[in-house]
């Protein structure tokens, strides 16, 4: 028994609506400030992952805990470019000695610069209310 034509039309209509709805949701970047890493920073991120920086360092609190969180290392802690670039190859204390060339150091630095621009960690404006919900004041401010 074949279903009547009107059902076929209804199913196609629902499929079209579902696809349009998904398209709109997945291409709308306004909700999270449209953070996009530049090509250079993406190279830096690759170096970051390939060299396991995240096994000792955190970004937004995620990662290993042997080294400090580096989310805002660029601005928050007032490190300049020279300091950070020399840090990558320094081998100070528990930080292993790497052998990055100048381009790679620039890329890693660019990654840290752009990560820093995405927001602040820890969010000092966040408050935990009595009922357990986290209230964030000026939530969109950090993405401007
Ligand atoms: C084995 C653990 C480990 C790995 C892997 C590691 N680090 Fe570190 N890193 C540390 C430690 C520990 C410190 C703090 C050193 C100190 O106290 O002076 C540090 C410090 C730093 C600092 C300076 C932070 C500051 O505020 O002074 C930067 C920048 C940094 N690391 C970047 C990197 C990058 C980029 C990578 C990957 C290429 C990396 N680290 C891999 C352990 C690590």
From TrEMBL:
<protein>
    <submittedName>
        <fullName>Cytochrome c</fullName>
    </submittedName>
</protein>
<dbReference type="GO" id="GO:0046872">
    <property type="term" value="F:metal ion binding"/>
</dbReference>
<dbReference type="GO" id="GO:0009055">
    <property type="term" value="F:electron transfer activity"/>
</dbReference>
<dbReference type="InterPro" id="IPR036909">
    <property type="entry name" value="Cyt_c-like_dom_sf"/>
</dbReference>
<feature type="domain" description="Cytochrome c">
    <location>
        <begin position="39"/>
        <end position="116"/>
    </location>
</feature>
<dbReference type="GO" id="GO:0020037">
    <property type="term" value="F:heme binding"/>
</dbReference>
<dbReference type="Pfam" id="PF13442">
    <property type="entry name" value="Cytochrome_CBB3"/>
</dbReference>
<keyword id="KW-0349">Heme</keyword>
<keyword id="KW-0408">Iron</keyword>
<keyword id="KW-0479">Metal-binding</keyword>
<dbReference type="InterPro" id="IPR009056">
    <property type="entry name" value="Cyt_c-like_dom"/>
</dbReference>
């Amino acid at each position: 028994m074949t279903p009547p034509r009107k059902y076929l039309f209804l199913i196609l209509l629902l499929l079209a609506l579902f696809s349009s709805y998904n398209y709109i949701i997945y291409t709308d970047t306004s909700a999270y400030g449209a953070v996009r890493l530049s090509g250079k920073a993406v190279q830096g991120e690759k170096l970051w992952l390939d060299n396991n920086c995240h096994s000792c360092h955190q970004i937004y609190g995620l990662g290993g805990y042997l080294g400090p969180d580096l989310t805002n290392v660029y601005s928050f802690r007032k490190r300049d470019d020279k300091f950070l670039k020399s840090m990558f190859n320094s081998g100070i204390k528990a930080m292993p000695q790497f052998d990055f060339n100048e381009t790679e150091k620039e890329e890693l630095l660019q990654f840290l610069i752009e990560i820093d621009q995405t927001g602040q960690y820890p969010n000092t404006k966040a408050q935990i209310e009595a009922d357990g919900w986290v209230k964030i004041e000026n939530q969109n401010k950090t993405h401007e």
